[in-house]
UniProtKB/TrEMBL annotation:
Segments traversing the membrane: 20-42, 1103-1123
Superkingdom of origin organism: Eukaryota
Region (Disordered): 1138-1182
Presence of keyword Transmembrane: yes
Protein known as: SEL1L family member 3
Entries under SUPFAM superfamilies matching the protein: Concanavalin A-like lectins/glucanases (SSF49899), HCP-like (SSF81901)
Amino acid sequence: MSAGGARKTGPELEQRAFGWLWLHLPSLGGPSCFLLLLLFALGGMSRKQDLLPPPWPDFQGGDAVGTAMESLAPSPAPLPARFRSSSNLGFLALHKRCLLLLLLLLKYEPSLGKKTFLTTPVILQPDDSVFYEDFIHLNVLDKRVRNDTEISVTYLCSKPCIVTIEAIASLEFRTGVSVYKKSWENNNHLHTTWNQTVNLTFPSSMVFRDDFVIKHSLIVHTVILYAWLSHKQARVPHAKQEEGYLQAIARDYTLLDIVPPFERPHKDHKVCLKWSLEYTWRLQANRIPWCPHETDAVEILNFPYASSGEMAGLVKKFPKFKNRELERIRKRQISSPNFTVSIWLYLLHYCKKPLCGILYFIDSKEMYGSPAVFLNDEGCVHIQMHLVNGEDTAVKTTFSLPLKQWLRLDLSVNGEQIEIRSVGTNLKIHQHEIFHFREDFYYNDTSGYLALGGSTYSPGIEGYFGTVKYYRLHGLETERISNPFFSNEVLKRIDAYHQKCPAIQSIASKYGFTLRQGEEEQKCIRDNYYLEMKNKYGGNLKCAEIIWEKELIGKHNSMSRQLQKADLQLPEAIFGRKLFVTTLQNLSKDDGLHYINSSLQSLMDSSCLGYHRASYVLGVIFEIGLGMPTDPLQGLLYSLVAAQGGDRLALMNLGYKHYQGINDYPRDLELSYAYYSDVAVKTPHDQNTAEGDQAFVEPVRLQDDELLKAQTRESGDLFMWLKHEAKRGDAAAQQRLGQMLFWGQQGVGKNHKAAVEWYAKGALETGDPTSLYDYSIVLFKGQGVKKNKRRALQLMKKAASKGLPQAVNGLGWYYHNFQRDYAKAAKYWLKAEAMGSPEASFNLGVLYLDGIYPGQTGRNHTVAADYFYKAAEGGHMEGTLRCSQYYISGNLARFPRDPEKAVVWAKFVAEKNGYLGHVIRKALNAYLDLSWHEALLYYIFAAETGIEVSQTNLAHLCEEQANLAKTYLATDCVWRYYNFSVFQSNAPTFAYLKVGDFYYYGYQNQSRDLDMSIQMYSQAALNGDAQGFYNLATLLEEGYSIPSDILDHLEICRSLHTSNTALRQQLYERCCSLSNQESISPCTFALLYFHLRIFCSVWHSSLIYFLGSFLAFALVAFVIQCFQRLLRIRSQVSSICGEVPTDCSSPDESTKASGMAEPEVHPVPNNGEEADLNPQRPSSSS
C-alpha cells in the first residue's frame, strides 16, 4: 500500500476500482454492471506492465466490508519458479483477472421477482422540486354510490391538457374493477380555474336491488373516485389507469360510501310484465335472505359406536359450503389440502387381515380418496393419499397403537405435510410422527363419501369409536383441537368391563388346563412309556388349585359347575355358551323369573367368556328393568359390548333405537344404518348354512287363530299328516316337507339331511319341477348330501325344460360359477328375467358391476343399479342390500342420497336373519305350550330388536297376562310396545286403534291427548280400516275438529272441510264401504241414525213449522167450507120435500100400510140431459 499523498500506481488504481465495483455491484443495473466488468477485464488484458497478480483487494478508508473480505481471503501462496518468467507471469495475470471477474459475476444475483424487497418505478415520476400551477379538485356533496350522482371537478391547466375521472370498485370476488370512466380535453381555457359538472352513472347491479331482471345485486366493498390532469405532450399513449394517474401533473381522489344491497332502491325497468311474473316477483321482493352460521368443524360422531370388524360401518357425505367464501377456500385447497381429523378409539385387537378401516374417503368413482387411514396387523397406522396426477402414495407409522385403552388419533394435513399424533385421555401426546411429501395431494371431500369403520371394500376395526371431529379447512395442532374425552360415563364403563373380563377368562382357562392335565394322566398310561415314568417318578403338579376353587365356588359358582361338566377341549367361548344356555333354561321354567337377580352373575360370566348373546340379554334386562329397577347406562354398556361381539340381536337393537331415537338414544340414521347393514350383510350367508340356532322368520300374530292352528312340530298332527301324504307320493306334500325341514318353517327345526331326502323323493319319483330344482341346488352346494355336479346339472336342465324360472336362472348360475362362460350365463339370465325371476335380475346386475357382461367394456354402475333395483322390487335380499348401499352413499344419480330409505331397506333384510327367527320361534312355541314365563322372556328379546310382530305380540301377551307383566317388568309393557309398534312402517291397524283409544280415554297414568288420538285413528283409516273412519266421525259428533292436513291425507274434498255434517256423512259412507257387505255393520246403523237425525232436525226447523201451520190453516178452511156447502144442500132438499104430498113424507108408513113393494129410487143423473134436475152441479164441480 502506498502513502496517502503519493501517486497511485497502475495496480493500486486497479485495486481501488475493483473494490468500488465489489461494493456497488448489487446497486448497479444489469447492463451497466456487465459493461463495467467487461471494460475492467479488457483493460487488464491490454496493459503489458505489472504482470504479477495483485494481492486480494485492499479497500481504503477503513471500509468494514473490505476488512471482512480481507480477513476471509486465504493468504496467497508463493509461486513456483517456472511461473516467474515474463510470459508466464502475464498469462497468469490474465487468468487471475478472469477469475476475479467470475467471482464478481457470482456475487451479482439478478433480481427476477424472487426475494425482492424494493420496487423500482419504471414510469418517470414528476419532479416534486418544480412548482406547477396546475391543480384538480373533486367536489362531491353526496358520496353515496347512487345512479346519476352529480359531482363537480375544479381544475386549472397551464398547457393543453386532458382531464380524466374514473371510479374503481372492489367487489366480493374481484378487485380493481373500473365501473365508470370519463375524459375530456381543455385546449382553450388555460391558466384559468374551470369547473365541470359530471353525472356519475354506475352499473345497475351496483346501485339497485335484485328483481326480475337484475338477478344478483353485487356486493361492493369499496369505491374510489380518481381524478387527474395530464398535459397532452407529456401523456403516454395507451397508458393504464394507474400509470396515467401516476404520470399526472395534478391528481385527486375521494372514497365513496357503499349502499348495502338491501337498502338500495328497485329499478324502474319501464317494461310491462306478465301478471304471473310480477306476482312471483312481488312475493319475494322484500325478503331478505338469511345465511345461517356455518363452520368447517363437523362432528361426525357424538355417540359411542361399536365396530364388530365386519364389512359395515358409518357412512357420511359432506355437501358444499353454503357460505361462498368457505366454498371458495375449499375449492382452492383441492390441490393443497389443509384439514384435521380427530378420532377417539378403543382397540380390542389388531387387524386380522392386512388392513382394517378406521376412516377413509371413497370418491365418486368408487376408488379410495384422501385421506384413507387403516390399522394393520401389527397395530401401526397406514395412511394413504390420492395424488393430483391420479396415483396413490402411502406411509406407515413406526409406532403401534395400544390395546384396551382409550386414545385419540389426530391426523393433520398441511399442504405436503402429514402429522399424526396419539393422545391419551389426559390430552397428553404419547406418540407423534411427521411425514413430508413432494407430490401434491388431491382432496375433495364433496366427491363421494366418508366411511368410518368397515364398508363394502374393507373390514372395520374391532373396538369402539368415541367422538369423531373433522375440520374441513384447517390443519390444526393438538392444542387447538376441541375434542375432549367424553364426560359420558359409558366410555369409562367400557374400559372397566374389558379390564375385568381377562381375569375371568384366565380363571376358566387355568381351571380347564388343570382338569385336562389330570385327565391326561389317567388315560393311556400303559400305552405311553414316558407318561408311565412321569406318573411313577415325577412330582405332582404344583398350582394354587385351592385358591381357584374358593374363587370359583364363591363368586363364579355357576361357571365352576359348568367347567366341571364341559368338554375340556373347547375354548372359553363355548364354555360361555353352555353357561348361558343353562341359565336361560332355568329362567324359562315356571316361576323362573323369580331368580333373575341370582342369574345375573352367570350371564356376566358368560359375557366375559365371549358369548355375547348373554351380553345382549343383560342389556335388555337392565334397560327395561326385568325383575329389577332400570339401569340405562348398564343396559347401554352391555348392548354395545354385544354389538361389538357381532351378536345379531344386539346390532338390530342398537340400529332400531338410533332409527327411532327412543330410550335416550340420539336419532342418527347413519349410525342406525351401520348397525342394520352389519346384520344384513350376514343374513344371506346365515340362511344358506345349517349352523347355529336358526329358523325361518314367520310373522305369526297371536290374534290370528288360523295361523296359530297351522303351526306344528316334528311330532305335530299337521307334520305327521304331510309326512303320510308324502310317503304316498303326493308331490306337493313332498315339496312342502322339504322346504319346512330345509328352512325351519312352521315350528319345524332345520334339518338339511332330512330335507334332501324329501327333495330327492319328489324329484326322482314324481318329477316335480320345484323338487328337481331344489334337489339340484343341494347337489351343487353339497348341503346335506355329497356334491355331484354332473347329476345336479342334469336335474337342473330337466327342471328348466319344464319352464321353471328358478331353474333357468340356475343354469346361468352354473355357467357363471363353474364354466366361466359369461355369454351363456347372460343368455340364461336374460331368459329367466323375462320369466319374472328376481334372482336373474340381480345376477345380470353383477355382470355389469364386475365389467364382464358380454360385449361391454368396463364397469357400468348405472345399469347394474337398475338391475339391482328390479331384483329388490321382487324381494331379493342381496338386491335390496345393494340398493340400501346406493341410497346411503348417494354416488349414483339414479339413487340420490336418502339415509332413511337406506335404513328401511337394510332393516328389511336384517329382519330376515335366521338367528332372530329362532328367538321368535321359541317365543311362539312357549305361548302355544302355555309356558308364560318363557314366552314373555323370548318375546321381550325379539321385541327389543324392533320387530313389529314381536312388539304387538308382546303387548297382547301382557294384556292377557297382566299380573305376570306387572310383577316382573318395571315399565308398562302394554303402553310401551303398542307405542313402539305404531311407529313402524308395517304396523297393523288394530295397533293404531289400540293406541288411539289409549290417548282418547287416558291410559292409566297417561293424560288424554285428542290430537294423538286423531292421528292414530286417521292412520288406521288410511290403512283401510272401517273402525278408523267410524272413530273419526264419532269425534266430530262430540264436537272435536279434525285438522285439514289429516283430511287431505284421507282424500276428502276441501269443500267439505268446513261443513261438519258433510264431513260426518262422508266418513260414515266410507265406513260402510269398507265394512263387511254380507252383514249389517255398526257403520250401517250409524249412517241410518245419521240420516234420521238429519230428517228430525229438518222437521223441527222453523221453515217446517211455518209450512205445517199454513197447511193446517188451509185444511181447517177447507173443512169449514165443505160443512157450509153441506148445510146449504140439506136446506134445498128440505124445501123440495115440502112441496110433495104428505103421504110422500112418510113412505115407510104408506108402504107398510098398503103392503106394496118399496118403490125404485133412481140416482141423481150426472149426464147433461138431466142437468136441469141437478141444481147443485156447479157447486160440486167447483
